[in-house]
Amino acid sequence: MDTPLKPMLRGNLKPNAGVDCGTREADHHEGNVSNSASEAHIRHTLWPSFLPRYDNPSVQVTLVALVSFLCPGMWNALNGLGGGGLVDAKPANNANVALYSTFAVVGFFAGIVTNKLGVRATLSLGGFGYTLYSSSLLCYKHTENAGFLIFAGLQLGLCAGLFWTAQGMVMLSYPTEETKGKYIAWSWMIYNMGAVIGSAIALVQNMHSDDNDVGDATFYVMISLSLLGTILSLLLCEAKAVKRSDGSPVSLPQSPTWKSEVRGLTDTLKHDTYILLLFPMFFASNFFYPYQFNTFNLATFNIRTRSLNNTLYWLAEIGGSYLAGYALDSSRLRRSSRARIATGVLFVLIFTVWTGAFVWQRNRPHTIAGAIKKDFTDSDYAGPMLLYLAFGLFAAVWQTCLYWFLGALTNDNRKLANFAGFYKGVQSAGGAVSFRINTLAVSSVNELVVCWVLLAGSLLIAASTIIRKVHDRVE
Q1: pLDDT in tens, 307-318
Q2: What residue numbers bound the domain in which 151 lies?
Q3: Subcellular localization, per the record (predicted)?
C-alpha cells in the first residue's frame, strides 16, 4: 500500500540523489555559488539516499504535516480539553472569538501572501502564533491577564490564516490528480496525531489530579513542541523546487507582484463564482467544535476523563481521514461518481451522528454548578464516549471531503491557494460566531440544533457545485 512516506519515483532513485531545493536553475550555471546552493549541499549530504528525494512531494507534504502535528496539533490538544485547559471556558472563548474574527479576514487574503512570500516563510510565520497562544493560556492560569490572552488570540488569527492557507496549497497542489485523496488523508492523520499525543500527555499528567484544569507541565510540553514545529518549517523546499512523481513540475506564479496577486484573487471570485456555493459548507466546518469541546466535554466530565475523551476524539479523526481519503482516490469508480457518493455519505453521517447527539442532549439533566462531573469509571460512560468518537469521525470525513472537492475543481496552484484561503477564512468566520454563541446563555439543545441545521443546509447548497463541477479530469 503506497503512502506519501514511500518512494514515488520508483526506479529513479540513485544513491545520494540529492536534495535540490530551490537551486535547479542555478546548478545549470557554472560557478554559481549562493546561500541556496550551500543549503542544498547540506541537505544533499544529510538526507538518507534510500528515501525519496527531499524535493519529492511525498517528503514535502509529510514535513508540512509534521509541522501541523507540532503547531496546530498541540493547540487542538489544549482546545479539545474544553476552555483551553482552564477551569472556565469563557476566557478561552473570548480569545477564540478574537482569533477566528481575525482569521476570517486574514484567511480570505492569505493566498496572496502565500503566493508572494512562498510556502516556507508563510508556514514559519504562521507556526509561531501557536507558541505564543499556548503561552498566553499558561499566563492567564496564574495571572488572569485577559488582555494578553485576547492579544494572543488576535495574533494567532493572523498567523493561523497564513499557516493554513500555505498548508492547504501544499496539500492540494503537490499531489497528482490520482493521489490527492491519499495525500489529504495522510496530512490530516499526521496532523491529528499531534492532538492525540498532546491529549495523551494531558491524560498521563492529570490522571490523579483533583483539579479541573490542566497542570503547568502540560502547558510547558505543548509550548516547547509548537516552538519545535516553527523551527522545522524552515527546512521546507519552496514550491518551485518540487516535482511530482509523474515528472510534472509544481510551481507558483513566477515572481508575482502584490498587484498581480490581488488581481488573481478578484479574478477567481469573478470567474469561478461556483466557489461561493461552497462558502456555507466552509462556514459550518468548524462551527461544531465549541459545542463538542465545551458544552459536551468540559461541562460533563472531569479533567482526566476529558483528556481520555480528547485522545479518543483525535484518534477517531485519524481513522475518518484514512477511510475518506483512500475511498475518494479509489480507481474503481469515476471521480465524478466518487464526488456524488461522498456527498450522500456526508448527508447520512449528519443525520446519524447529530440525531444521536440530540437524543443524548435532550435526556441529559442540566449541569448544576459545583456538581461532581462524570468519570470514565462510571457505569454510564460508554454511551457519551461512543458519541464523542462519532463526533471525531464525522469532523475528519467532512474536512477531508471538503479538501478533496477543492482539489478536484482545479489544478491551478494560484487558484488553489486562493481556494484554501477562502476555505480557512470563511471557516474562521463560522468559528468566531460559534464561540460567541457558546459564551452566551444559549441552551445546549439549541446550540446543538444550530450546528445540525447548518451542516445539513450547507451541504444541500454545496451539492449542486459538487455534482456539476467535479469532473473525471481537471483541465
Answers
A1: 899 999 999 999
A2: 55-243+268-469
A3: Membrane
